[in-house]
């Protein structure tokens, strides 16, 4: 298959790209890494009139420590750069742990952080990670900008809060709190394939070993990243193995509603969610205790 005819433009500044999106709106598509967009265009599932290539726009690929001690990531930062970045490993260890799970090295060499988030594939790792890390996304349009919480950005299957004239330009991850532990686990038929299910966990303990914060966010069990409310049951308690088991099982049985596909039934995905949720919480708690010296 080949894409439908389109007009190609390659702006060299962000202002020029924003102006183009303002002119063409829903008729335009942004080209970042192209690892998702180009196959979709080849199958003619997307037929943009205008393709706006961001690869010549400077200043959108930064990976740096922010003024508040958090992590700032430009939307055009490649997956491979995030995977190898010492800054990412130090400031967002959950993101660092998840990066090797994304597809294959060839894909990571071209794919971008912003492109993955804007595509909003329910089986993609980065949307789940950004929700778990409580990231904020900076959206620009000609003449203005706004910030959107990651939890509010993903609105449905391949659907986000981006307006037709907006460009996602930056991801801001808050500082990693002291006493926090993390884990990311997923199960795929082969490494690099889309996961049948996965989960990201973040746990913060106080000096007494009681849970101060807990987040459990599932991958590919809903149309968007699914943050389990059951994780709040850990807060204020010492997270014992029994309590973790109860939380993970409740989330898998009562909070997710997976859809079966050619690779896994809904019942199997629910089972995976329970097992992976327990593993992720146990590992996150163990790391948090190690960080506290407990």
- Secondary-structure-derived class: alpha+beta
Please report the distance between the alpha carbons of the first and last residues: 58 Å
Poorly predicted spans:
none
Radius of gyration from the alpha-carbon trace, in angstroms: 19 Å
- Specify the overall morphology: globular
Q: Report the sheet-strand fraction.
A: 15-25%
Treating each run of at least 4 consecutive H or I residues as one helix, how many helices?
Answer: 11
Order of helices and strands: EHEHEEEHHHHHHEEHEEEEEEEHH
Instruction: Describe the largest sheet.
Output: 5 strands, antiparallel
Mean pLDDT: 96
Number of strands: 14
Helix content: 25-40%
Strand order of the largest sheet: 4-5-10-6-7
Q: Would you write up a description of this structure?
A:
The protein has eleven helices and 14 strands. It is of the alpha+beta class. A five-stranded antiparallel β-sheet has the order 4-5-10-6-7. It has a four-stranded antiparallel β-sheet with strand order 11-12-13-14. Strands 1-3-2 form a three-stranded parallel β-sheet, with helices on one face. A hairpin with a 2-residue loop joins strand 8 and strand 9. It is globular, with a radius of gyration of 19 Å. The model has no long low-confidence stretch (mean pLDDT 96).
How would you summarize what this structure contains?
The chain is α+β, with helices and mostly antiparallel strands and 294 residues long.
């Amino acid at each position: 298959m080949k894409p439908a005819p389109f007009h190609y433009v390659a702006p060299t500044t962000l202002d020029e790209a924003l102006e183009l999106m303002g002119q063409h709106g829903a008729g335009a598509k942004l080209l970042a890494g192209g690892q998702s967009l180009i196959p979709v265009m080849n199958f003619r599932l997307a037929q943009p009139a205008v393709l706006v290539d961001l690869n010549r726009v400077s200043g959108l690929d930064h990976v740096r420590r922010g003024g508040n001690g958090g992590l700032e990531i430009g939307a055009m930062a490649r997956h491979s750069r995030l995977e190898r970045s010492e800054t990412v490993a130090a400031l967002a260890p959950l993101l660092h742990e998840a990066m090797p799970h994304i597809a294959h090295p060839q894909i990571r060499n071209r794919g971008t952080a912003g492109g993955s988030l804007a595509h909003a594939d329910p089986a993609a790792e980065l949307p789940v990670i950004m929700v778990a890390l409580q990231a904020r996304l900076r959206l620009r349009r000609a003449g203005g900008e706004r910030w959107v919480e990651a939890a509010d950005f993903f609105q449905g299957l391949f659907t986000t809060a981006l307006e037709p004239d907006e460009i996602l330009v930056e991801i801001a991850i808050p500082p990693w709190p002291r006493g926090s532990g993390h884990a990311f686990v997923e199960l795929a038929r082969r490494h690099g394939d889309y996961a049948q299910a996965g989960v990201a966990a973040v746990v913060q303990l106080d000096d007494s070993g009681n849970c101060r914060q807990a987040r459990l966010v599932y991958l590919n069990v809903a149309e968007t990243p699914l943050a389990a409310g059951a994780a709040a049951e850990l807060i204020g308690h010492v997270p014992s193995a029994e309590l973790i088991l109860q939380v993970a099982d409740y989330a898998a049985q009562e909070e997710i509603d997976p859809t079966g596909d050619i690779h896994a039934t809904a019942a199997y995905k629910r089972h995976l969610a329970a097992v992976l949720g327990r593993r992720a919480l146990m590992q996150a708690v163990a790391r948090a205790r190690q960080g506290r010296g407990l």
